[in-house]
Amino acid sequence: MAKVLYIEASPRKERSASIEVANNFLNAYRAAHPDDTVETLDLWATDLPRFDQSTLDAKYAILHGQPHTPGQKAAWEAVERIAAQFNSADKYVFSLPMWNFGVPYILKHYIDVLLQPGLTFSFTPEEGYKGLVTGKPEVVIYAQGGQYPKGTPWENYDLQSKYLELVLGFIGFTDVKSVYVNGTLNGADGKDKAVAAGTAEAVALAQSF
Ligand SMILES: Cc1cc2nc3c(=O)[nH]c(=O)nc-3n(C[C@H](O)[C@H](O)[C@H](O)COP(=O)(O)O)c2cc1C
Known about the structure:
Elements: E1 3-8, H1 17-32, E2 37-42, H2 53-63, H3 70-87, E3 91-97, H4 105-114, E4 121-124, E5 128-131, E6 138-144, H5 159-170, E7 176-182, H6 190-208
Parallel strand pairs: 1-2, 1-3, 3-6, 6-7
Antiparallel strand pairs: 4-5
């Protein structure tokens, strides 16, 4: 019995293209894998710890091999809870809109909390950086108002997928499949067409995920 963690980054809920495709993916996944569980992490409904001075001091204390003060310990425990939830999954699904060519700030906040030495990656002078989240598959559903096809000059504007792929690779993911729900702002039926195409791709992936 596998646990899927679904991380949702659009605040638009029933109007969201990325969430609609993710829900279609997850429904197909549940039908194909009835014994598995799906846990949803709606980033907009989650009280993410602030990445403030105490948290940063706690992070640097670890990097410098120093013990935590009581304040740093409390701050770090909130970070550890987020990482523990993340690490407890066997498979991952992310859905996110493109915002200003990148990811929504709530997802950046989550990533800033999640990417920690000893929790999702390690560093040693001998081995350098090593991702600790290994051997787990991931599907990422990207919604984009425009289109940024690979091999065109527009590709360079897609910092959304470039950034997330880099982050996921950094913490250890090697099996990441991407679904683009793009052109959602291309005319009156842009969103419907994008959701239909994205859903067809996502549902096909759900069978073997
Ligand atoms: C704040 C904001 C910034 C956006 N920036 C971009 C952008 O840089 N490029 C783009 O193609 N679409 C952009 N869009 C459009 C969204 O990516 C598009 O509407 C997408 O379908 C939203 O996904 P969602 O419906 O799942 O929230 C932006 C939308 C918002 C709200």
